[in-house]
Every structure is written in structure tokens, then in C-alpha cells.
Amino acid sequence: MSAQPQTLTPATQLPPADAIQEPRGAEILIEALLHEGVDAIFGYPGGAVLHIYDELWRARDRVTHYLVRHEQGAVHMAEG
């Protein structure tokens, strides 16, 4: 088995680390919902969904969030 040497790109040819900005999952989720025409979201913030709520705040002029007391209530409200 022979190992092939790897060709490395000099660091001067790479963009600075802070210039590379990949979208986060929460940002992708909110943009996808907006793309589908969602204008209202019912939910209960906390725990693992806090990143989603950060993105909801950034999109507050395009989507309305309704705070509910219980997750089941959010489902009933969303169904109409």
C-alpha cells in the first residue's frame, strides 16, 4: 500500500475564517418556512429550540409568533 502525498493549499489563498459564513440549521428552517408562505408560527420556547427562536426574532417583520402555554395548544391553534 503506497501513500500519496497530499497537496496543501497555502493559507494565503484561503479566505479568512470569519469570511466563510455558512447558514445554520435554524436559519435554513425559518427561510424554508417563509419560502413556503408561512406567516404565523405557534410555539413554546425553551431548550433545544432556542436557536430557532433567535432566527424568529431576526425574521420578526416577516412572520408572527404566537406564544402558547402548552405544545398541544399550539397544534390546535395551528390547525385552526
Query: Could you give the order of strands across the largest sheet?
Result: 1-2
End-to-end distance, in Å?
Answer: 64 Å
Q: Can you tell me the overall shape?
A: elongated
What's the tally of helices? 3
Give me the strand/helix succession. HEHEH
Kindly report the average pLDDT value.
86
Runs with pLDDT <50, length 5+? Answer: none
How many structural domains does the protein architecture include?
1
Helical proportion, percent range: 25-40%
Oligomer: single chain
Structural class: alpha+beta
Quantity of strands, as a count: 2
Largest sheet: 2 strands, parallel
Strand content: 5-15%
Rg to the nearest angstrom? 20 Å
Short characterization:
The chain has helices spanning 25-35, 50-58, 71-79, and strands spanning 40-43, 64-67. With 80 residues, it is α+β, with helices and mostly antiparallel strands. The chain has one domain (23-79).
Describe the structure in your own words.
Helix 1 crosses helix 2. Helix 2 links the parallel strand 1 and strand 2. With 80 residues, the chain is an alpha+beta fold. It has one domain (23-79). The protein has three helices and two strands; from the N terminus they run H-E-H-E-H. The model has no long low-confidence stretch (mean pLDDT 86).
Strand and helix layout:
Elements (H helix, E strand, L loop, with lengths): L24 H11 L4 E4 L6 H9 L5 E4 L3 H9 L1
Helix pairs in contact: 1-2
